Amino acid sequence: MDANNYLDIVAHYESCLRLHGDTHLGVDWPKQQDAETRYQVMLDLIKPQSTQNKIQLLDFGCGAAHFQEFILKRGIPNIDYAGLDLSQEFVNLAQNKFPSNKFFQLDVLRDKRSLPSFDYIVMNGVFTEKRELSFDEMFDYFSRLLVNVFENTKTGIAFNVMSKHVDWERDDLFHLPFDLLAEFLKKHLTRNFIIRNDYGLYEYTTYVYR
Predict the structure, then answer these.
(1) Residue 42: which domain range?
(2) Looking at the predicted structure, is the pLDDT value of residue 86 above 90?
(3) Does residue 200 form part of some domain?
(4) Residue 73 and residue 161: Cα distance in Å, rounded?
(5) Residue 161: strand pairing partners
(6) ∠8-86-118 over CA atoms, to 5°?
(7) CATH number where 86 lies
(8) What are phi and psi of 28, to 5 degrees?
């Protein structure tokens, strides 16, 4: 098993950006409305009591920073947004759009010494596509990355994966069973998690809290 095969997923998203530009298609979301649904679900990770203070939030796998656009459009004033992406192309695009925000071009599985801690970390679309990876290869990447990222949150993280409860599964998507996810979280992170399957898409989102 090639431990770096997840880089093929990054290359796929870069090809989408070159083909479609700074759009929802450029980050391989088929529908703009569904993308905005996902952004709201990611925002719901934030606990109500947290909104009274400034929130340090990392958009892990930020792509073109569309999540920041969504936050600004909603007029949410207390989120200090930062982005991280493996792709230098996406980081350059996001930094040019939001020059006052901090963006990291970083592979945390290799080196994360420059990455600070954040109150919340969202990972929207990081695990929905596996492309040519096998399920086992993708689950290995998923497992290593979640353990790594959870170390950098003070309050909680959110991520989405494709559901197993669909009419059919696509070979290039990561359909993760609930039971396998719950067993992993209980064993390696915490029992303090919420699985959301209530927003009408063929996926689900998990909030994992300290």
Answers:
(1) 7-209
(2) yes
(3) yes
(4) 26
(5) 204
(6) 135
(7) 3.40.50.150
(8) 65, 35
At residue 92, the pLDDT reads 98
Contact 153, 57 (CB under 8 A): no
How far CA 185 is from CA of 108, 143, 209, in Å, comes to 20, 9, 11
Amino acid code (one letter) for 190: T
**Contact predicate 175/164, CB 8 Å:** yes
For residue 1, being part of any structural domain is answered with no
Q: CA-to-CA distance for 93 and 45, rounded, in angstroms?
A: 26
pTM above 0.90, yes or no: yes
Give tens-digit pLDDT for 102-136.
999 999 999 988 899 999 999 999 999 999 999 99
18 Cβ contact list (under 8 Å, min separation 6)? none
pLDDT in tens, 133-151: 999 999 999 999 999 999 9
